């Protein structure tokens, strides 16, 4: 599975795991061209002994009913290329059936969640949307994934399944369709748990753990609707066009395309920058404290 951080991927993957039976292994945030069993940022096991999640007593790669490994914030050609394909069986074993999954969230809520993390001083991802350079880089990244979603590119070649997080979160019939595409037996599962990976929700942290379906994940953009830096993201016409094709027009977001007055830009920049600066100071203080203790 491939995704960008804050795209709801862990909720979707957890849903896939819960629909699956037998021996299940999920390896979070693998590294391209590397063995995901050896290089990952956490794992979930179901029906598998911790000691044998990779290899058995005789050194053989143990059989699993489902193996999922995710790549987070890697360029698609980095993940899907001839070299990676050649080493697939050697690194993870032969598969009965393979699926390449791409999970995408609309850019309005995606970027709002990315920026919100900065207020907490949390650096759980490689890329932080904090200035013009990082903003342009992440816009480029999102558009790359969106083009793959729409089929403009075709890096994902093994039973490609693209998932709209927005639709997954709101439409039970969509979940039924996805389950069928993935060869899973559908059953209703309540969206209860917030991911154990990272800080949880950018906005609610783990406040809604046990009732995750109540989070307003499709309204995060409203928190930053007056922030000039956030609004400037949507001056990219291609970004808007791709978003409209995948998610339709997000209700209310038209306001983000309107020009602000000069005094509004100054006022709201100060208002929104202060919590972000505080978060950044908090992060570096924690980093210095850990270094001192170490």
Could you name the key traits of this structure?
294 residues, 3-stranded mixed sheet, 10 helices
Summarize this structure briefly.
The protein is mainly alpha-helical and 294 residues long. It has helices at 9-19, 76-79, 82-92, 107-120, 132-150, 165-170, 172-181, 228-232, 237-247, 262-293, and strands at residues 2-3, 24-27, 43-46, 66-69, 71-72, 101-104, 161-164.
Number of helices: 10
How do the SSEs run, as a string of H and E?
EHEEEEHHEHHEHHHHH
Strand arrangement in the largest pleated sheet: 3-2-4
Largest sheet: 3 strands, mixed
What Rg is obtained from the alpha carbons, in whole angstroms?
20 Å
How much of the sequence lies in strands comes to 5-15%
CA-CA gap between termini = 35 Å
Note poorly predicted spans. 197-206
Mean pLDDT: 87
Helix percentage range: 40-55%
By DSSP, the count of extended strands is 7
Quaternary structure of the protein? single chain
Task: Categorize the overall geometry.
Answer: globular
Structural class: mainly alpha
Task: Describe the structure in your own words.
Helix content is about 40%, strand content about 10%. The protein has about 290 residues and is mainly alpha-helical. The strands form three sheets. A three-stranded mixed beta sheet has the order 3-2-4, with no helix packed on it. It has a two-stranded parallel ribbon with strand order 1-5. A two-stranded parallel ribbon has the order 6-7. The protein is globular, with a radius of gyration of 20 Å. Residues about 195-205 have low confidence and may be disordered.
